[in-house]
Amino acid sequence: MNPSATLVQSILHLDKVTVKYGFTKAIETVSFDLIPGMALGLIGANGAGKTTSIRAILGMLGVSEGKITIFEESKMTPKLLARIGFAPEEATPPEYLTAKEYLTFLSKFKIKAQESSEHSIESLLSWFELDPNKPIRKYSKGMRRRLVLSQAFLGKPDLIILDEPLNGLDPIMIQKLRERVVESRRSGASILYSSHILSELENSCTDVVMMHKGKVVMKGPIPALVETYGSVEKAFAANVGGN
Amino acid sequence: MINLIIGNCRYIFRSRMIFLILIFSTLVHVAGLKFVNHLTVSIQGVISVLGPKQEMYAALFLQLFTGLSIATVYGIWMAPYAHRGERSILTHMIPISKYHFPLCYLFCCALLLAINIFVMVVSYVFVFGPTTLSSPEFSWTILAKTFVFELISFEVVMLGLAVSSLSFGQVATFFIGGCFLFVLQILGAIARLFSENTELTKVSSKGWLVWTYEKLPPVGDFIFDLKTLISEGKFNFEHVILWTVWMLFFVAVFRWKIRYPIQQRSTEA
Q: Is residue A126 situated within a structural domain?
């Protein structure tokens, strides 16, 4: 983990968080920090506990043990949600709306000034190459995915959480998303980026947390990992297993 | 809250629910009232047609049926829409208090029920002529009171069905809800039989069963309450309070149900 994380106030702090599904522990004693301007990659194989960790952070699951602090608050409130942009791994926006109507609806809760809202919506739709006036029910799977990603950036949130954002994206859109993530980080947002595509995280993130079977097995800044292991992939193989 | 209501109204409009209500409600009211208009009553050999007051009763009872249908459809299919399956995660992320959702659905259902009342009045005028509205036997006060009473009770039905739909799924709720309303109706009739028949009351103590029944939503007494309201213009305040308590209870349960996104049964239509 970046040594500065302990000095700078964390935006997100997980302290020995355990989440259970019934009697099964989905994640166990997970701890990490996210500081302003950091892009933290959450790496792990399928079922490692990445999505569970994200859902626990967003108050979508009850935490059995440990503590989660976001913006120095331990309870998720509407005020906190307004500062977070989240693109889930799988989600279906309301099909009866158009993309522009959907983002406009969300912007009423996230953006105060109407003028900046309209500008922001048009710019987002154009960036993600979405037809603003086409009903969402007529969108392809890839277009819906892009719409879900676009809403995560609406209102310039302080914390952006992307859960497997590359699923269903073409190579051009992957490149554009990468640029968007870097741009958001430069403008002050912190990013939590969950993926199992290690090369992508190496390009987009500053730090990584590696998860395996619900536990954090390694964490640290990417340059340090690359220096020690040669690449994030090799670091993952060394700590989690595989070739 | 206003934005949430506008968004929900857009859903009602886009899903064509509003048009279905208008068509269904108009058909039921016009057909029913035309039937009543041609109905004659024979009492001890004297044949007479129904008067404006009986016609109004008929109209109010017809809109009881359409109103219940609206509350059922809205509760089982429409209110849970944003809180089911993969959509629930995006809804969860909307930065507003979770209490706004049930309150928004109450408001939108009230709008639909108001439209239903409006259709009833228009159908009434269409069948009996506009002069009947100015007739001394047509009471706007009773109409307004009936609307308020139905509104409270149908909102409870709607929210109860919505909670059940989120918990057990839509198809199961349709049957569970139907059975529950039927059982309460039967219990209501039995309770009335006991309360009106002193002999029966003597042999069977009220006990915990009746005590429990009296605390449940007064579905079984609904028709009787409505009859008293229409004929005497009196609210059964005890039942109005009970309906209101159940409404608040279901608002709280709905809020509790959506505290986390509900992802099961995502494939159910």
A: yes
The pair of structure tokens assigned to B149 is 């009473």
Q: Given the structure tokens 């579905």, which residue do they identify? A: B219
Please list every residue in chain B whose beta carbon sits closer than 8 Å to the beta carbon of residue A82. 95
Tell me if residue B153 falls in helix, strand or coil.
Answer: helix
User: pTM score, two decimals?
Assistant: 0.82
Q: Does B14 touch chain A (CB under 8 A)?
A: yes
In this prediction, residue B209 carries a pLDDT of 66
Tokens read off for A104: 């406009």
Give the integer Cα–Cα distance in Å for A80 and A89.
21
Q: Which residues of B touch A58 (CB under 8 A)?
A: 92-93
Contact B92/A93, CB-based, under 8 Å?
Answer: no
Instruction: Say whether both A63 and A76 belong to one domain.
Output: yes
Q: Closest CB to A94: pick one of B82, B95, B260.
A: B82
CB pair distance less than 8 Å for B89 and A96 = no
Question: B212 touching A, CB under 8 A?
Answer: no
Residue A65, φ and ψ in degrees, nearest 5? -140, 160
SS3 B269: coil
Mutation pick from B90, B91, B98, B99 vs chain A, by most beta carbons of A within 10 Å, is B90
In a shared domain, residues A141 and A162: no
Q: Is residue B168 part of a domain?
A: yes
Q: Are strands A24-34 and A12-21 parallel, antiparallel or unpaired?
A: antiparallel
| Domains in chain B, number | 1
What's the ipTM?
0.83
* Domain-embedded: residue B263: no
Q: Are residues A152 and A163 in the same domain?
A: no
Least confident of A1-5, A148-152, A158-162, B6-10: A1-5
Domain around A135 = 90-156
Contacts of B86 in chain A (CB under 8 A): 88, 90-92
